[in-house]
Amino acid sequence: MVTHVDRERRWLDASVGLAELMLDEPEVTEFLREFCSRTTDLLEVPAVGTMLADESGALRVAAGSDEASELLELLAAERQEGPCVDAYRSGEPQYELDLRESAGRWPEFCSRAMEHGIFKTAVLPLCRRTDRLGTWQVYGREALPGRAELELAQRLADIAVLSLSQSRSLWHLTRSAEGLRTALTSRIAIEQAKGILAAQWGVHPDAAFQPLRAYARSRQRKLKEVALDVIEGRLRLPPR
Known about the structure:
By secondary structure, the chain is α+β, with helices and mostly antiparallel strands. The chain is built from 10 helices and 5 strands; from the N terminus they run ααββααβαββααααα. It has a 5-stranded antiparallel β-sheet, with helices on both faces. Helix 2 (28-43) packs antiparallel against helix 6 (147-164), helix 8 (177-201) crosses helix 9 (205-218) and helix 8 (177-201) packs across helix 10 (223-231). The protein starts with a helix and ends in a 9-residue tail after the last helix.
């Protein structure tokens, strides 16, 4: 049975882990992917995604905990529609949205989400003081964590933004289309490397991500650089 102390320790460990990750000077997308992964585990939900706004106010995909969440974020970015886009424009968090009831409002987004077994979502802000930088989304099946739990997770999101606030790459990413294109290129390279390793090892692509990231961390290299080495055949990782 998980006690109150155990629960608090898990959240504290996640906060410290994100702060420690910044010591390795990760790319913004890698850092946000780690935030998504940790929040997914803490909230015990299928997936979490993040989106950042460019200088025009358009939301762009940043990172997700898995391929399904990143696909949904990419779809929302391409069409500039979906619960994350509406919540960002209104500035109001949405603690529970039923996508079955919203199919007429966001038909393509809802259809894709439900194909992946996602029927509920919550959208909360990524902010730096009074500046809205983007949103983060929680994806659920038939249920979502309660508002108190989501507000606790919001504190972790605030810590993530605070940790990134000194990063020049965050400034660049949120203010230029070029920065967002770079982030997308990085994500594509990582996904390609995951696919190559998955094919080599006979596993699902998501199972290839952790060994890829562990290799990069153990050698203090950027995840994108290691991914490119895998893609171009300069690196062949042993099966895990």
